[in-house]
Amino acid sequence: MTTDRIRTDVDAGVLELVLDRPEARNALENSMIAAILDALDEAARRDDVRAVLIRGEGKAFCAGDDLKDMGTESHPLDPNPFVEYAAGYPRIVRAIQELPKPVVCAVHGFAMGAGLEIALASDTIVAARGSLVGLPFVKRGIAAGTVLLARAAGRHFAADLLFSGRMADVAELERLGIVAQLCEADEVLDVARRRATALALGPTSVIGAMKRAMHRGLESPAAAAMDLQVAATAESSLTADFAEGKRAFAEKRDPEFTGK
């Protein structure tokens, strides 16, 4: 879907996906969700895209779902609440997790609700110091946000944020190992771009195999998760990048991966 509230650009193997609704702190509505899904699908299909960077324009990354806009004539709600909420930001979460390429998220200002969920679904988070994060669904009388933070940080930390609806300094997520790097606000985009560009130079199909094995392994018993790892190892051993990695090691040089 086309909307001027989402921008994309491809450079150096990185598809940069920009939430561009700064007047609403990049709050999500239906056309934005559809456009984000289209951009992620494009990233999956294009061979020249080997990493994705998600960021927000303006003073914040994303304020979450736009509750004012949803349910209006231009963005109507589905009468079936399960269908309605399944079609919202959870589709973005699944698309990011299933994308066979690494995803970097640049967080600044704040990331609330669906905004934090998008960041948590990403593979690497770079955040500006002093940014605020939260899952304030309880303050709207709705149950959501129960999966990603609990898996990343543990049930007790997730319960603290979810049940209280409080905002937390992003440094709390950095201490838990969820945020890969904190930096100054005027540096966050450059740092995120450097990380995404470095990942785009990696063995993309191998990274995709590892990403798939990790996500499926989280939902599996330990023995089955190890089988998934072995399957990913076997799959990666058949790639051109595996052969290049072996040659580079033998020749004592840096590998030059093609992503295949």
Textual characterization of the structure:
Strand 2 (14-19), helix 1 (30-45) and strand 3 form a beta-alpha-beta unit. Helix 3 (89-98) packs parallel to helix 4 (114-121) and helix 9 packs antiparallel against helix 10. The protein is α/β, with parallel strands linked by helices. The protein is globular and about 60 Å long. The mean pLDDT is 94. It folds into 2 domains: 6-200, 2-enoyl-CoA Hydratase, Chain A, domain 1 (Alpha-Beta Complex); 204-250. The protein is built from 11 helices and 9 strands. The strands form 2 sheets. A 6-stranded mixed beta sheet has the order 1-2-3-4-6-9, sandwiched between helices. Strands 5-7-8 form a 3-stranded mixed beta sheet.
A few lines on this structure:
The chain has 260 residues and is of the alpha/beta class. Helices cover 45% and strands 15% of the residues.
Number of strands: 9
Sheet having the most strands: 6 strands, mixed
Number of helices: 11
Say which CATH homologous superfamily of the largest domain is assigned: 2-enoyl-CoA Hydratase, Chain A, domain 1
What average pLDDT do the residues reach?
94
How many separate domains make up the residues?
2
Reading off the top of the CATH hierarchy, the class of the largest domain is best stated as: Alpha Beta
Which blocks of ≥5 consecutive residues have pLDDT under 50? none
Strand order of the largest sheet: 1-2-3-4-6-9
CATH topology of the largest domain: 2-enoyl-CoA Hydratase, Chain A, domain 1
Give me the secondary-structure category. Answer: alpha/beta
Distance between the termini: 29 Å
